[in-house]
Amino acid sequence: MTILRWILLPFSLIYHVIIWVRNLLYDFQIFKSKSFDIPTIVIGNLAIGGTGKSPMTEYLIRLLKDEYKIATLSRGYGRKTKGFRLVELSSQAIEVGDEPLQFKKKFPEITVAVNEDRCAGIEKLQEYHDVIILDDAFQHRKLKPGYSILLFDFQSLYQPIILLPTGNFRDIFSSTKRADLIIITKCPEIISENKKAHIEHLIRKHNTAPIFYTRIGYDKPLNILGKTYAEELTDKYIVLCCGIANPTPLVDYLETKGNKVQLVQFPDHHNYTAGDYEKIKAIFNQIEFPNKLIITTEKDLQRIDKESFIDYPLLYIPIHLQTADKQQLTFDHFIKNYISKNLN
Predict the structure, then answer these.
(1) What does the alpha-carbon distance between residue 194 and residue 228 come to, in Å, rounded to a whole number?
(2) Which domains does the chain have, with CATH numbers?
(3) From the CB of residue 311, how many other CB atoms can be counted at a distance below 10 Å?
(4) In terms of Cα–Cα distance, which of 302, 321, 301 is closest to 241?
(5) pLDDT 10s per residue in the chain (344 long)?
(6) Which one, of 53, 67, 329, 87, lies nearest residue 210 by Cα?
(7) For residues 253 and 270, what is the distance between their CA atoms, to the nearest angstrom?
(8) Which of 214, 250, 257, 322 is the most buried (most CB within 10 A)?
(9) What does the DSSP assignment read for 43-80?
(10) Nearest to 134 by CA among 118, 150, 123, 120
């Protein structure tokens, strides 16, 4: 953590007080929260950056879509529109946000919607659906969700738990008490009992909810037409272009397979420009290594003009959530049990 961020610690303390008071006003119902009869599952986090909310949302979609008529509702971060909007296959990321567009393209049979006002969005969706999954709505206190899943990046629990701008947390840690399930994401392959004890010690001060440990799984690379890349992803020179909060796990994954990785990083939810495409292609063209590729994330692909790379070997790598310690069936049971008890 840089010296500049520590200098800003007084602002973090002021922000801490503001968030604490806001939460207190909701807890004592001075500020009102609205609940709904339809099962509503909120996925969220306390820190900024990528904790794996999208893979968790997709996991729930896969788990539930064959049994229930489900809808996802997101804010649509990075879009240039406002209000309620249904996501169509023909939508653009600038209209609906990259993650909702990704959900719609992967699961065209479900309803995907965006609305910064989650309660208003639920009101529009509830009549025609059995379950609504809300991505990144843990801090949306105007909504009282039926079930809350709170995500923590594994590494974030080994860093100072301080609010912005000094730390990386946007909500106070005691807000953990509102979660029904707690998910530790992006875990290493092997987690020692000491590390689990450290994590559980932090969380158990505020919540006794079940804790699950997960990691990111990487699928086979696909080209821009959605076809599987035939070769093994080893011993390549890779230009990795991405606008996500934390590209480090993807870089590590590619490097452990024996690849040389040159990262071209953009801000999270970055809207790519023609200049960005030229920069990426220029870097690629300067590489003399014969086995070279351009790789991006599935989320970035929603914001990239594929036609600009029609003559280049552009691939993307889908990801998915993997539960550790054979916990998947237990996790699935908690979700389905909540829905079965609350479905009218």
Answers:
(1) 40
(2) 40-216+322-342 (3.40.50.300), 220-317 (3.40.50)
(3) 8
(4) 301
(5) 688 899 999 999 999 999 999 999 999 999 999 999 999 999 999 998 788 999 999 999 999 999 999 999 999 988 999 999 999 999 999 999 999 999 999 999 999 999 999 999 999 999 999 999 999 999 999 999 999 999 999 999 999 999 999 999 999 999 999 999 999 999 998 899 999 999 999 999 999 999 999 999 999 999 998 999 989 999 999 999 999 988 999 999 999 999 999 999 999 889 999 999 999 999 999 999 999 999 999 999 999 999 999 999 999 999 999 988 778 889 999 999 999 999 97
(6) 329
(7) 23
(8) 214
(9) EEESBSS--SHHHHHHHHHHHHTTTS-EEEEE--TT-S
(10) 118
Contact 219, 320 (CB under 8 A): yes
The owner of tokens 């030229």 is: 278
* 46 token code pair: 């306390």
Contacts of 103 (CB under 8 A, 6+ apart): 54, 57, 58, 61, 72, 74, 87, 110, 112
For residues 48 and 162, is the Cβ–Cβ distance under 8 A? Answer: no
The Cα–Cα gap between 320 and 318 comes to 7
Cα gap 149→161, rounded to integer Å: 19
